[in-house]
Amino acid sequence: MKKRIIVLGCTGSIGRNALEVVRAYPERLEVVGLSAHTRDRELLAAAREFGVERLALTGKRGGGVPYEGEEGLLHLIEETEADIVVNGIAGTRGLLPSLKALETGKDLALANKESLVVAGELLLETATRNGRHILPVDSEHAAIFSLLRNVPPDAVKALYLTASGGALRDIPLSRLEEITPEEALRHPTWEMGPKITIDSATLANKGLEVIEAAVLFGVPPESVRVVIHPQSVVHGLILLRDGSWHAQMSTPDMRLPIQQALFHPEVPPQAPAPLLLEEGLDLSFRPVDGRRYPMLGLAYQALASQGKRIAFNAANEEAVRAFLERRISFPRIAEVVESVLAREWPSPRGGISPILALDAEVRRVTEGILKERSDHAS
Ligand SMILES: NC(=O)C1=CN([C@@H]2O[C@H](COP(=O)(O)OP(=O)(O)OC[C@H]3O[C@@H](n4cnc5c(N)ncnc54)[C@H](OP(=O)(O)O)[C@@H]3O)[C@@H](O)[C@H]2O)C=CC1
Ligand SMILES: CC(=O)[C@@H](O)[C@H](O)COP(=O)(O)O
Ligand SMILES: [Mn+2]
């Protein structure tokens, strides 16, 4: 029987890669639901190609798509019989769809790391209660997830996430003030959406991933570590107590972690982009420079509580938006997040509503700080 898949954010980088995986395995995988936010023509083209009728468009109305708006997307997830939901929505708006997928008895192939940062405990509890799995699609977590399956849990000393260093890795620190969004969006190894690409340049992406790993794998924050690895070939490593390293490596291509999640626990039969060591390969690793990447230290601070995690995530999302809209300069992103994080953010109690209320409050505070600091509005 074919595995039935809903692809959320099918017009984005993760969504398009997920559809590529389905194209590669027509006898094993079937798309039964699709969502997009604004790109309705691409959504309809995918629907025609895969013969899908359950479609949601969240960011526009009136185009003849059966499920409209955020509420419509949640109804689509609820009303569509499926085995697994690929969540490739960008940002915190992916949280409610993640929760709905698990509540309605589907596995969750999760690229939307913001879901876990903001409400990881709630998602894990919901998955357990419904007997479902959260399968990480984020490349580092997919790597560590597969490495951990092969060792006894008490043998693991630390988890290592690799970071490319982003588009500005080799730019002199003195130039960061004048960096344009176009420069910061030139990722050296991955083709991804704009928000995560800016997060790669500040290392907020790795900060979110440290939180994602601590929550998902249930390990203390100090055992999740980050190293700069410019080639993005080694995605994740685990260090065992006996001093041995286990690493997972592949060509940087998101079809691999996506197909691993879709075939779990089976190992997929084909390599989407083989890595040929016979052709030669140089790999390098170096420590993170805290002066260049203050966001990583802020993410570790945020690990102290769920309230701070929500604050870090929401403040970052708003600050990145302001940078992309040219309302603040690149170094202000970290400064704004630091100011927000310095306030008191008590952890929400009692389900999803207090989480969403705190997220909204952080955004209100961040917007106030952004107004004060908008330093080069054109
Ligand atoms: N790209 C990658 O390789 C990786 C991405 N991730 C994570 O996956 C997620 C998606 O990233 P990526 O694919 O790069 O992002 P993109 O910006 O390329 O795509 C985002 C997708 O989400 C949709 N979308 C945007 N806003 C909303 C909203 N408010 N409600 C519902 N849908 C929305 C977009 O629709 P439309 O285009 O129609 O407007 C689009 O389909 C992020 O959480 C990211 O951190 C993790 C690891 C790797
Ligand atoms: C592909 C993937 O998983 C991204 O999250 C990637 O890690 C981003 O690249 P950086 O290593 O630059 O953050
Ligand atoms: Mn990643």
Automatic annotation (TrEMBL):
According to its UniProt entry, the protein's GO biological process terms are: isopentenyl diphosphate biosynthetic process, methylerythritol 4-phosphate pathway involved in terpenoid biosynthetic process
Report the cofactors. Mg(2+); Mn(2+)
Q: Which residues cross the membrane?
A: none
Positions of Mn(2+) binding = D138, E140, E209
Q: Where does NADPH bind?
A: T11, G12, S13, I14, N112, E114, G193
Q: Which pathway does this chain act in?
A: Isoprenoid biosynthesis; isopentenyl diphosphate biosynthesis via DXP pathway; isopentenyl diphosphate from 1-deoxy-D-xylulose 5-phosphate: step 1/6
Q: EC?
A: 1.1.1.267
Q: What class of enzyme is it?
A: oxidoreductase
Question: Which positions does UniProt annotate for 1-deoxy-D-xylulose 5-phosphate binding?
Answer: K113, S139, E140, S164, H187, S200, N205, K206, E209
Write out the entry's keywords from A to Z.
Isoprene biosynthesis, Magnesium, Manganese, Metal-binding, NADP, Oxidoreductase
- Enumerate the spans annotated as DXP reductoisomerase C-terminal domain: 249-364
Q: Name one GO molecular function term.
A: manganese ion binding
Q: In its keyword annotation, does this UniProt entry include NADP?
A: yes
**Domain 1-deoxy-D-xylulose 5-phosphate reductoisomerase C-terminal: start-end pairs:** 134-217
Its UniProt entry gives the catalysed reaction(s) as:
2-C-methyl-D-erythritol 4-phosphate + NADP(+) = 1-deoxy-D-xylulose 5-phosphate + NADPH + H(+)
Q: Tell me if Manganese is a UniProt keyword of this record.
A: yes
According to the entry, every stretch annotated as the 1-deoxy-D-xylulose 5-phosphate reductoisomerase N-terminal domain falls at 5-120
Q: Tell me, what does this protein do in biology?
A: Catalyzes the NADPH-dependent rearrangement and reduction of 1-deoxy-D-xylulose-5-phosphate (DXP) to 2-C-methyl-D-erythritol 4-phosphate (MEP).
Q: Which family does it belong to?
A: Belongs to the DXR family.
Name of the protein this chain belongs to:
1-deoxy-D-xylulose 5-phosphate reductoisomerase
